[in-house]
Amino acid sequence: MSAGHTILCAYHRRVDPISEAVARSRAGRAVAARNRYQENPWSVRFPAINGSGLHIVRRGTVWFVPEQGRPIELQAGDIVFVPRGPVHGFSNAPIPYGALSSAPKTPDLENFTVEFVSCCYHLDKGRVPETFGELPDVLTLTLDDQTDPLLRNLTDLLAEHATGQGAGSDIALAAVVDLLLVHLLRAWQSEDDRLDPSIAKAVRAVQEDPHRPWTVQQLSDLTHLSRTSFTRRFAAGMGETPRDYLLRRRLDRGAHLLRHTDLPLTAIASQLGYATAFSFSAAFRREYGLPPSTFRQSGSVS
After folding, report:
1. Assigned architecture for domain 197-298
2. C-alpha atoms less than 13 angstroms from C-alpha of 150 in its C-beta half-sphere
3. Structure confidence at residue 268 (pLDDT)
4. What do you get for the CA distance between the two ends of the chain, in Å?
5. CATH 1.10.10.60 domain locations along the chain
6. Which residues contact 178 (CB under 8 A, 6 or more apart)?
7. Cα–Cα nearest to 206, from 16, 3, 37, 7
8. What is residue 172's three-state secondary structure?
9. In this predicted structure, what is the pLDDT of residue 200?
């Protein structure tokens, strides 16, 4: 086996927290909008959401205004990422959050001096991915064509699909947001972040065989650890118990299938390893707070 092949195999097998985070976000609705302003002063508020959002400045200078802390000046080409969706806003000047206007946004001005595009994955129910929980409340990045030339292309595509016009825009928007999250998380990912090899092996097994009805005992056997030791080390590395991880991952997959496919409930339950649609529905309701049928009806992408 060549060295190159060995490297590729190692890359394929390693635990990928970025894929985990983006896959979890897909249970939500991708939403995007343009924001355009011409005359000062102007300001706008964004409410808190159960999800993650980002804003990309395409023209002019704006100030990002958090609820707490100092405003941040942003120029064209800057991106601001709010991993856990807190309240925040924007203004033409560094004003306090309490001074922001609640006036409607102005997306369709023909003549404007400021434009930024906003998008988010809005999770109707469920939790923001743990990977996002490890990030600061606000992250900023400046587009750099040298280090990531594709990122600018993605921001252009986001602006194009933010209007929601054209056949297939809903699907295209979700795909663009997925790719943007991947590139942004890559930019901020710490090279020092390493997972316990035994736990990585267990997580990798679940990733590679997601339809298998894994048990905690099977995973601990796979790592050659006692169930107690495995559970302790898994919780330390992943921030949740193995049982909670398996349940969450299974139900997140179910939410994605409900949101993005027409599969009947029995087929989804079977794919996820549940014996009956009833048992899946009960587990889903405990996690998401509503039955699968209601989640599917209320979550159509618009």
Report:
1. Orthogonal Bundle (1.10)
2. 9
3. 93
4. 49
5. 197-298
6. 22, 25, 26
7. 16
8. helix
9. 82
> Cβ–Cβ contacts within 10 Å for residue 65, how many?
26
- Residue 162: how many CB atoms within 10 A of its CB? 21
- Please name the amino acid found at residue 204: R
68-77: long-range pairs with CB below 8 Å, 24+: 68/97, 70/94, 71/95, 72/138, 72/140, 74/116, 74/140, 75/142, 77/142, 77/143
Model confidence band, residue 91 (pLDDT cutoffs 50, 70, 90) = very high
Residues 6+ apart with CB under 8 A from 230: 198, 199, 202, 216, 219, 220, 223, 242
SS3 95: coil
Using one digit for the tens of pLDDT, what is the confidence trace for 156-201? 888 887 776 666 777 788 888 888 877 777 766 543 355 688 888 8
Give the model confidence (pLDDT) of 63-75 as tens digits.
999 887 788 899 9
- Local structure of 139: helix, strand or coil: strand
In terms of average pLDDT, the best of 3-12, 111-120, 141-150, 207-216 is: 111-120
CATH 2.60.120.280 domain extents, the chain: 13-188
The candidate with the shortest Cα–Cα distance to 78, out of 99, 57, 106, is 57
Amino acid 40 reads: N
Between the CA of residue 249 and those of 127, 129, 135, what are the distances in Å?
11, 10, 20
Long-range contacts of 169-178 (CB under 8 A, 24+ apart): 170/30, 170/301, 170/302, 173/30, 173/32, 173/119, 174/26, 174/30, 174/301, 177/30, 177/32, 177/119, 177/121, 178/22, 178/25, 178/26
Task: Report which listed range, 17-21, 138-142, 152-156, is most confident.
Answer: 152-156
CATH topology (fold) of 13-188: Jelly Rolls (2.60.120)
Q: Give the residue from 133, 120, 122 showing the smallest Cα distance to 20.
A: 133
